[in-house]
Amino acid sequence: MKNSIRNIAIIGGGITGVAAYISLVSYNVAENIYIISPTSIGESEAFDSAEPDMICNTSAGSISVVPENLYDFTSFLNGRGMQIEPKDFVPRSLVSEYVKIRFKEYLESAEANGINTTHIWQRATRIDLISRDRKYGIYSADENIITVDAAIVCTGYAHNIIPEFAKAFVSNQRIFTSPYPVKNITTRVPPKSQILIIGTKLSAIETAITLAEKNHQVTMASPSGELPAVRTHTLPSGVELIGIDEIAKLDFKSNKLSRNIIKIIIKSISKLTDLPLSLQISKKSDPIERLEEEIQLARKGNIYWQDIMVELIDIINEFMSDKDSITQQTALHSCNNIISRYMGACSLENAQKLLEALKTEKIRLHHGIPVIISLNNNEQWEIEWKNKKSQYNIIIFATGREYPQYSLSDNSLDLNAVTSECITKPYLDKNLRVYHSRKQVPENIWLLGISSHSSIPLVNAIYPAIQQAKSLGKWLKENAKNE
Questions:
Q1: Which of 121, 231, 286, 364 can bridge 345 by disulfide, Cβ–Cβ 3.0-4.6 Å?
Q2: Nearest Cα residue to 10 out of 36, 30, 31
Q3: Which residue windows are transmembrane per the record (predicted)?
Q4: Is residue 21 assigned to a domain?
Q5: How many structural domains are present in the chain?
Q6: Helix (H, G, I), strand (E, B), or coil: what is residue 182?
Q7: At 387, is the secondary structure helix, strand, or coil?
């Protein structure tokens, strides 16, 4: 029987969108593929950077966008004369180059195999559900740009998160609402500037390192003042270390959830080493001293907790996928320290650079956020902290980005819903397929990567998004003829 899904739209042309495209071409599951993106395919603010310090926080061995070839990215790099191992972290710019080259290659492969590819240079805002003939109208504003048999949504993050105290100033050219693209900052910041970065996580760290190396004085500030832990890779261990039965018994609404997950982590790590978890982490209260001690642990290879993180993320995502949003948010809040410090740990290379810059005071760390900001007559930002005042030439917000908000009605999926308690978030089945609960039918619409956040809470990384794309192509190959 011939597949009924012949025309597929991929909404979003970033890394997840490219991975979805390559998966569709590899499994030969469509006659026409439409990529709807207002920018060039493979383009990404976070990855299109020539700065060597902008390191991708996913090991090279977990970045392959080619199905059935886990180490395609490392082979790509080694084929260029680089000596890269699967565990290594590499510059974001190399990931961007790889994704764009592989897209062009699979574009040629698609053409050779009779698959038509069309890039529609618009931003999709809505998908209409044309139930009478199982079709989907893709809209940009109020214009119907294409009608297809299926849609794959890979739109990524929405707006930058800006704290309330700064919203009145975001149009000022001395404020950057995001650390990306980094060239936008490095080419516009005056020499030897005093720079304040709001944020102390990965994007803040790599931006601070880049600017400090260009002889700027940088201060990083956040409410906690904490820095991420340090790791040397993000590869799965290759063996099952975590007892699924133990995760299944967890009460995700319990205020003891974090403690119970740590118990599971301790038990799982004991299968790898006799070194207790307490000796694999630093308990220093000072963040710089803690960073230094964790760098030493990483150098010695005494951080076995990193070997179970990918497996832990996958299992938690699986068990939380059918939980309601309140339960998910409660669980994430309870486990915030595990998520922010360890699942979002810093590469050893960048941690060492950060420590050196902190010790030489090229980068300073501040615990707290501004109470008031204003612009003085010298075009400098006057910052009032809780107990002191300071001045900066530039402010950069590395405070993260909002998740996209989608709202499902009887007739459409709104891709630009305003954050509100009133929106009806789409429910996703185990294959990340939009399920219309009132109609009791699954739609031929899939949400991948960041777009799947309502069901897959820990998806803000390349690895899970790419795995989703690979799985979808395989699923369509096996099931599309029945749809």
A1: 231
A2: 36
A3: 7-30
A4: yes
A5: 3
A6: helix
A7: coil
CA–CA separation, 31 vs 258, rounded Å? 47
Banded pLDDT at 247 (limits 50, 70, 90): confident
Report yes or no: 348 and 298 within 8 Å, Cβ to Cβ. Answer: yes
| 281 and 211, same domain (yes or no) | no
Per-residue pLDDT tens over the stretch 180-229: 888 889 889 999 999 999 999 999 999 999 999 999 999 999 998 899 99
Has residue 370 been placed in a domain? yes
- The residue assigned the tokens 């001395």 is 174
Task: Tell me, rounded to whole angstroms, the distance of Cα 417 from its chain centroid.
Answer: 20
| Residues of the domain holding 351 | 160-228+347-397
Specify whether 154 is located in the same domain as 21: yes
Q: How many residues make up the chain in this entry?
A: 483
d(CA 16, CA 10): 10
For residue 372, what is the domain's CATH number?
3.50.50.60
Residues 370 and 407 in one domain: no
Instruction: Report the alpha-carbon distance of residue 26 to residue 475 in Å, rounded.
Output: 12
- More confident of the two residues 57 and 113: 113
pLDDT digit string, tens, across residues 23-44:
999 999 999 999 999 999 998 8
Residues 34 and 92 occupy one common structural domain: yes
DSSP, res 406? -
- In this prediction, residue 1 has a pLDDT band, given cuts at 50, 70 and 90, of very low
Tell me, yes or no, whether 2 lies in a domain: no
**383 and 409 part of one domain:** no
Do 258 and 373 sit in the same domain of this protein? Answer: no
Report the b/e string of 156-192 with b at 16+ CB within 10 A.
bbbebbbeeebeeeeeeebbbbbbbbbeebbeebeee
Question: Which residue in this structure is represented by tokens 């005056």?
Answer: 190
Any bridge partners for residue 129, and if so which?
136
Tally Cβ neighbours within 10 Å of residue 477. 16
Report how far apart, in Å, the C-alpha atoms of 107 and of each of 33, 82, 115, 162 are.
10, 26, 9, 38
Distance CA 455, CA 212 (A): 39
Same domain, 423 and 474: yes
Question: Which residues in 247-347 belong to E strands, given as ranges?
Answer: 346-347
| Model confidence pLDDT, tens digit, residues 262-293 | 888 899 999 999 999 999 999 999 999 999 99
- Do 201 and 298 fall within a single domain? no
